[in-house]
Amino acid sequence: MRSELFGTLSHSGDHAAERTEVHRWTLERDGVRVRVLTYGGIVQSVEVPDRDGAVADVVLGFEDLDGYLTHPGPYFGALVGRYANRIAQGGFPLDGQAYSLARNNGTNALHGGALGFDKRVWAAQAAGPHALRLSRVSPDGEEGFPGRLEVVATYALEPGGALSISYEAVTDAPTVVNLTNHTYWNLSGRGAGSAAGHEVRVDASRVTEVDGDLVPTGALPEVAGTRFDFRQPRKAGPGYDHNYVLDKGVTAAAVEVAALHDPASGRTLSVATTEPGVQLYTADHFDPELPFAPGDGIALETQHFPDSPNRPEFPSTVLRPGETFRSRTVYGFGAV
Hints:
- The structure is a single chain.
- The chain has 336 residues and is mostly beta strands.
- It is built from one helix and 27 strands.
- It has one helix at 65-70; strands at residues 2-12, 17-29, 32-37, 43-49, 55-57, 79-80, 86-87, 91-94, 97-100, 109-110, 123-126, 131-138, 149-157, 163-171, 175-176, 180-181, 184-185, 199-202, 204-207, 234-235, 241-246, 255-261, 267-273, 277-281, 298-303, 318-319, 325-335.
- The strands form seven sheets. The protein has a nine-stranded antiparallel β-sheet with strand order 11-12-13-14-27-23-22-18-20, with no helix packed on it. It has a five-stranded antiparallel β-sheet with strand order 1-2-3-4-5, with no helix packed on it. It has a five-stranded antiparallel β-sheet with strand order 17-25-24-21-19, with no helix packed on it.
- The longest helix has 6 residues, at 65-70.
- The radius of gyration is 19 Å and the shape is globular.
- The protein starts with a strand and ends with a strand.
- The model has no long low-confidence stretch (mean pLDDT 96).
């Protein structure tokens, strides 16, 4: 494992312009190479072989830091928090107190706010020959969230080349936490065009119904007989930005819940997680200025449900002092 300078961020300090270095770490194991940035905990690249042994980068991203700074909206490869997905009307109650958040998605809070975890530089250190430990402290009140939150995210290549991302967090005051990774996958390779031909499987019998702002209504309709049914692999096509209610629920160990298959290259991706939900997003809203077209990637964001702080009937995302938030997702790679 090695690190290198990837770029610098310029910002104004108390007396003069200051610069913060951003580093790129490379992990390699059993034929898989992964590059992770200290900026936003971004998974910049994942290189894996196809059925014929040809290696390609299968995630959407940029070759330099400026690409991520210029195009932050899609959250390419980023570590998302303090709360992934949407919180309705940019606020929530907790223990009788109302909290107001940054509204960066219409009237709603999205992916941690205007300056979420995806736009922060994380401290990095090796955690063994095949693992990278990223950490940061989110101060009390950051983007409106209560409590001082200490967060650790560990990226590791497991035997066989699977990429695991494990999260831990502790707080000094009651708060809400929902962390995910926002990588877009294209198993044909970055720059290969549309991912619409990928076959998708999600082990979920229900979805969280949403309104026109993609905020849950509270209903959990069954997918049977609808376009949302991916219990058997099939091509997704456009039009998906929905949280799937995984049949397994919350688990202590990561359980496989979803998969992608690219018939053209033979590459496969399996997704295992401890989380109760996964957001299937078919990237329909890419800006025309991006080097990628709508549909060029598919995101499978493991998570708790959107707007859970306002939905007591959903699995809780509340974290209290003395508790430890833990979450783990494992991405496995293969070819058939």
